Write a sequence for this structure.
């Protein structure tokens, strides 16, 4: 899980909260075919709220990673 709040506080003019936050859930699977190699598959689901606090936009996607240690 991730949570980032890019702005804290309130607008001086209106007193409304400054939003612009980001929430993400990322489950993943890792596979180690050898002791020095890792293959990873993640599924990322995001909720992003804009500066004014409008309803959040939702995005999702897959990420693939490959690592080799030598």
């Amino acid at each position: 899980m991730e949570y980032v709040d890019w702005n804290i506080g309130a607008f001086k003019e209106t007193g409304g909260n400054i939003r612009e936050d980001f929430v993400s859930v990322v489950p993943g699977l890792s596979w180690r075919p050898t002791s020095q190699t890792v293959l990873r598959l993640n599924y990322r689901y995001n909720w992003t709220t804009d500066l004014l606090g409008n309803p959040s936009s939702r995005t999702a996607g897959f990420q693939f990673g490959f690592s080799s240690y030598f």
The chain has one domain: 2-68.
